[in-house]
Design brief:
By secondary structure, the protein is mainly alpha-helical. It has four helices and no strands. The radius of gyration is 48 Å and the shape is rod-shaped. It starts with a helix and ends in a 19-residue tail after the last helix.
Length: 206
């Protein structure tokens, strides 16, 4: 009779412990669900912000490309226009020189000494287009430096992006909430003790 009373008391205490454990686990479950919901919202926010920032970065690179393209085109037009003007002046000078050469050749066959002297003085004078400047052809191919600069920018930008992406990945930690090792399970283990005074007697004992 006394043992039954003790076991009944122990049963109530055990029930209370289980109820407390249930309540605690329900609380843990609710907290875990809230944490998962918060985690999902945080992930979605990070995703949206990342997409927005990378989109802005792409737009910035495209604007830079447009600026460099416009700069190259403008410089190309300026140099080409100057070169075309110089070409026309050189062609005109060559035309004048050939005309004078032909006139000098014709003058060399004249027997009129007065005409020879008058004509030779005017023909031997320097042509009016003789002041055409000579531009080195290497100055027309100065875009190699721009190409090298853009290539260097590409390399530096790729290196920077790789370094920063690695830092971002290192900051994103993945935590396993389900233990997969013995030590992991032991962290959540709960030790139950049995009261020898309340346990059922083994068979064979009086």
């Amino acid at each position: 009779m006394e043992r039954c009373v003790v076991m009944s008391k122990q049963l109530k205490e055990t029930k209370i412990k289980f109820q407390q454990r249930i309540q605690q686990r329900q609380k843990d479950l609710q907290q875990l669900r809230e944490a998962v919901a918060t985690h999902k919202r945080s992930a979605q926010t990070a995703l949206e912000e990342s997409e927005r920032i990378f989109t802005e970065l792409i737009c910035s690179i495209e604007r830079s490309l447009s600026e460099v393209t416009q700069m190259i085109r403008d410089q190309e037009k300026v140099v080409a226009s100057q070169a075309e003007e110089l070409i026309e002046r050189l062609e005109q000078e060559i035309k004048d020189l050939r005309r004078r050469d032909a006139e000098l050749q014709q003058l060399s066959h004249t027997n009129n000494h007065i005409h020879f002297l008058q004509s030779f003085q005017s023909l031997s004078a320097a042509p009016g287009s003789a002041d055409v400047p000579i531009v080195p052809f290497s100055s027309l191919s100065s875009f190699d430096k721009i190409r090298e600069s853009v290539l260097q920018l590409k390399v530096e930008l790729e290196d920077f992006c790789q370094e920063e992406i690695k830092k971002i990945c290192d900051r994103v930690t993945c935590t396993n909430i389900v233990p997969k090792t013995r030590n992991g399970f032991l962290q959540y283990a709960h030790q139950f003790t049995l009261d020898p005074n309340t346990t059922a007697p083994e068979r064979g004992r009086a």
